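Thanks for the sequence, V.! I ran Membrane insertase YidC/Oxa/ALB C-terminal domain-containing protein right away. Repeating your input here for the record:
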Amino acid sequence: MSYLRTIRTIGHTSAFARHPHRTVVGRSTITPGHLQVVSQRHFSYEATVAGFWQTLSQSAPVAYVQQGMINLHDLTGLPWWATVILTTVGLRTLVTLPLAVYQNKILARLEQISLEMPELIKELKAETAYAMKKFNWTEKEARIMYNHSLKKQWNNLIVRENCHPAKTMVLLWGQIPLWIVQSVAIRNLVSMLPDPTAIEAQIAYTELTLGGFGWIPNLTELDHSLIFPVALGVINLSIIEIQAASRTKLPSKLQTIFTNLFRGLSILMVPIAASVPSCLCLYWVTSSAYGLGQNLLLLSPRVRRTVGIPAVPSELTHPYQHIRSTFAAKLGALSGRLGSNNQHPPPSTKA
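Predicted structure:
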């Protein structure tokens, strides 16, 4: 659509150049110079959007993933729906699973060094009180030195364990680019990009129209049954609720805000998934389902010890039982509220 808008804008610009006369719009008189400036600005915006999309669709990572999917399909002879699923599982196993394990190791190390802080704080307070008497510090000076020493001790622990808090975002740094790249690669296959005249692109598109299954025989069309879009929303909400239920401490205000934000985004993804080709929706559902399984797997203490994640006090001994009981309590409370709302008090009668 951006290409069509760009062409339309170029046509308008050419028309203004061929007819250099004044144009009256309502009560305002617009000179050809004004029209040219407006059209050039509009063209610049559309060209920027079109150029960004073209650059992304023709980027090297997208090309590698796109060609890799085609090669996997040709090598295995699998239908395209199975190729999409297999590629998704393979890439997430190679990229996001190791990052998720590493992120959990960083979180565990941060929790471990936080357990050392109370003793350090006690020593720093004693040293600060001694220094106030020896050097005649004011309370303000003592507070400044105490905070400086406390920060230094915390940084020393972070360096010792190599667990900078910024590393807790490493999973997002890998997962989001991977999601974007594979989404654009699948979109390229449906749109026969970057070269619609290439025979390989036309063959891949034709195979996609025949490579579906069940209720989506044509992977280039929408999922009119809405099974995949709804499943995507349910899976994403399940991931969020499992992460919230697995916390052993009360969430902070910021955590509550982000949890509600991600709940809203999960619901928003349902109509978006309903408006894209079913092969792209299939990828999103497969990726989210893998993420759900990955989160559940890394809750197990046995799995965590196997991959080298150290034990911490916040770790659940029986995580699946805890999540089950938490969900049961929430459902019970929800059904209780619904039941109380359905019960209306009997009308009062006056003698």
